[in-house]
Design brief:
Length: 208
């Protein structure tokens, strides 16, 4: 959690460090109104002057809430979420606008998206000719995880859990933002429970 007074400093930085693509990470900043009058604030989107690559990088971050009002001595904790879509380091400045305050403020976010990496040894295999209706001799190969995190490996053709999960995900009602974040699943029932719980919560929030 990062804390920041509403008027000082003019720049606050948060660092997400390494986050695997396909996962998310949340950090928080605290905005505090230290003045004696009500404060209206909002985080602006990246300016039109920002280049295309910056805007693409900015789409990996969400800020919630991104605007509001604070009474004197009131504070709000703002959630900043990073969901990497591409590998590599990113650093962006999100403008924080305070009404009737000419001083420009920024939230600087730093992060590094990490792509999982697998190595197959050998990279290809070749079977010797076999007679029809005859099983070939098995061929072994090695899968090496080059990343620092665990990797789940499955077959698109033969993994029944993958097929069940795809069926589940294609049949549910998705929230308007098209995203449901759930913990990594160990089995079908874990994923089913997590998805349905998150789906119900998101839809309830949209209706209120």
């Amino acid at each position: 959690t990062e804390e920041d007074d509403e008027t000082d400093p003019e720049q606050t930085s948060i660092d997400f460090d390494d986050v695997l693509i396909g996962q998310s990470k949340d950090l928080y900043i605290r905005l505090v109104n230290i003045e004696t009058v009500e404060c209206e604030w909002q985080f602006d989107a990246l300016s039109d002057a920002a280049d295309r690559s910056s805007k693409k990088s900015g789409s990996q971050f969400t800020i919630e809430p991104n605007r509001g009002k604070l009474a004197p001595n009131e504070f709000v904790d703002v959630n900043v979420r990073y969901i990497p879509k591409q590998s590599g380091a990113v650093q962006l400045q999100f403008p924080l606008h305070v009404k009737h305050n000419a001083t420009e403020k920024f939230l600087v976010v730093k992060a590094n998206g990490v792509r999982r990496s697998l190595q197959l040894e050998p990279s290809s295999v070749a079977f010797d000719p076999v007679l029809p209706c005859t099983a070939s001799e098995p061929i072994s190969f090695r899968i090496h995880n080059n990343a620092a995190a665990d990797i789940i490996v499955y077959s698109l053709d033969f993994d029944e859990q993958y097929k069940n999960e795809e069926t589940l995900l294609s049949s549910i009602k998705w929230p308007s933002n098209g995203k449901i974040l759930v913990p990594p699943a160990i089995n079908d029932m874990d994923m089913l429970t997590a998805v349905l719980q998150e789906q119900s919560l998101l839809i309830q929030n949209e209706q209120t």
